[in-house]
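Exam revision sheet. Question 4 asks you to relate a sequence to its structure. Input first:
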Amino acid sequence: MAEEAQGQDKSEEPTPRKREKAREEGQAARSRELNTMAMLVAGSIATLALAQHMARQFSTLMADVAAMAVHPDGQMTAVLDLATTTALHAALPLLIVVFVAAVVGSGAMGGFVFSSKAIAFNASRMNPLSGLQRMFSMKSLIELAKAVAKFTIVAGVAVATLHLWSRDLLRLGLIPLPEAIVDSLELVAHTFIALSCSLIVIAAIDVPVQLVDFNNKLKMTRQEVRDEMKDSEGRPEVKSRIRRLQQEIARRRMLADIPKADVVITNPEHYSVALQYVPAKMNAPKVLAKGADLIAFKIRELATASRVPIVAAPALTRAIYHSTDIGDEVPAPLYVAIAQILAFVYQLKQYRRGAGPAPRPLGDLAIPDEYRRDS
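Answer key, structure tokens:
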């Protein structure tokens, strides 16, 4: 079966189970270009927003370091400790923003996947032949083309940005240090925004390519689809066995309700339908049981043993049998015919108790044409 599947083309779209299994193994569509762009855009915007705060922190740091350096008791350890603490405090908001952008950018396309199988040891990853195949594969050529395109676009935008802001860069040496720090941070932020926005072109192309490539990897052969259906739904013979057991349980439960019926109407030979009507609890009579041939005979047999009245009403029996399921209420167009049956049963019970005359034989029942079934 596996050899047969290997010889087939993977022309079928992946099933939900196939996609779920891929996620369990840590596989999801990913775009490094989208992640890089998100980190650069978020980091540059954060740098622009935090430029004043970071400039104050770095100005204070430079003044404190200079003061400690010329102090006769100054120690290099204390200077390094102060520099590290202040720099971390100044850059911490930027680092947090970049970290959040990296996490969000990573899961933006394929969602967040946590799988221990992805980090488990796999000897095939250490195979040098597999590594060479990946190096000279079509995917590697695509990655090389993307890298060249990305370098070309980013380099072009960088040259244009430096040319545009060359005067501002030269002006930094003519202004006071605190102001120069702020301006330099803003220039860096604007430059990174321009560079990261240039990556939008690469990301816009890479995201659809990665989605299509990942979907193609998950495609299945027809044999794989059939095997998966067998595994998920069970073998035909097992399903048939389960279905028979379910039908048998439902039949036993149905026949156990026969003593609760108010009347059993019959075809009189081929069909039997057991009806119950409790005015205080039901809006209309309910079908407790129904069956044909041997089941119909069993219903009549249990009804006789339980002293449930049996009434021959061929047209009405066929109409209810074909238009309802067990547990359903009788359809409204059949209310008049059912009322005639219940009235006949009530008179029959009164007659058997000696409290009334014998009921008249049932005449033609009112069965709408759309509910009539040929015998």
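Marking note for examiners. Strands lie at 263-266, 271-276, 286-292, 310-312.
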